[in-house]
Amino acid sequence: MDMKLPELPFTLRAYGPDGHWSYEGGVLTGRAGARQDRFVPPTGEALEPAADAPRLLGAPEGDFRLIARVTVGFAAAFDAGVLYVHVGERAWAKLCLEYSPDVPTVCTVVTRGHSDDANSFTVEGGSVWLRVSRTGRAFAFHASRDGERWTFVRLFTLGDEEETAAALVGFMTQSPTGEGCVVTYDHIEFRPDGPRDLRDGS
Predict the structure, then answer these.
(1) Beta carbons of 56 and 170 less than 8 angstroms apart
(2) What is the residue-wise DSSP string for 130-163?
(3) Mean pLDDT value across residues 154-169
(4) Coarse DSSP helix, strand, coil percentages of the chain, rounded to the nearest 5 percent
(5) Hey, what's the torsion of the CAs at 68, 197, 85, 31, to 10 degrees?
(6) Could you point out which of 25, 74, 82, 140 has its C-alpha 20 to 30 Å from the C-alpha of 107?
(7) Is the pTM of this model over 0.90?
(8) Contacts of residue 178, Cβ cutoff 8 Å, sequence gap at least 6
(9) Per residue in 45-84, pLDDT tens?
(10) How far is CA 74 from CA 21, 25, 101, 181, in A?
């Protein structure tokens, strides 16, 4: 399934299980099914790496900022709405508003073979603004409680310059331990440049 949002200069394509993606009145909606996640455990546990969550991704050109207010209908631990970056099957990253495990939290996962997992700050209610940027051969994650003042969360790479330039970017939903959840993305915005300063709140 392909989808074109008026806010984005590139087409989105659905990956993974059916996310029941829909768009109306400036609001993108996706649904994660039961026990759907994307995570490769770093601890050596005898677990199959979860790699089965609904994603809606496209290929922007050059440096950019992708922004959305993310609202999650939390029902179980680790339900999340995500801005997602994909370079390869074991090279991808998530910026999440996640129930982690019982408080809404901005958290990140960067996967290079195996996933890491890091929490940033907690959020009151079920909404937060998330932003993913590409700046040169790096990606940056920011989050904001009001869409105005941005907190720097993470700067990272996922590959060489050619791989970074070809990255897919977009939206993901997950419900690793639950029966599913609904995520909405509104105030979606695309800016064709990277942030001026990663740490000054802009």
Answers:
(1) yes
(2) EEEEEETTEEEEEEESSSSS-EEEEEE--S-HHH
(3) 95
(4) 0, 55, 45
(5) -20
(6) 25
(7) yes
(8) 34, 35, 75, 76, 77, 78, 79
(9) 645 666 789 999 999 999 999 999 999 999 999 999 999 9
(10) 18, 23, 11, 6
**Which tokens sit at 66?**
């992708």
**Nearest CA-CA partner of 26 in 192, 188, 190:** 188
Nearest to 131 by CA among 168, 85, 175, 88: 85
Domain residue extents for the chain? 2-191
Q: Are 82 and 15 in contact (CB under 8 A)?
A: no
**In sequence order, which residues have a C-beta less than 8 Å from that of residue 136 and are 6 or more positions away?**
63, 161, 164, 194
**Residues making up the chain, counted from first to last:** 202
Please report the sign of the dihedral spanned by the C-alpha atoms of residue 6, residue 10, residue 13, residue 16.
Answer: negative
Task: Fold for 2-191, please state it.
Answer: Jelly Rolls (2.60.120)
Q: H/E element holding 115?
A: strand 114-115
Q: Extract the tokens encoding 98.
A: 């996640």
Tens digits of per-residue pLDDT, 17-41? 999 999 999 999 999 999 999 999 8
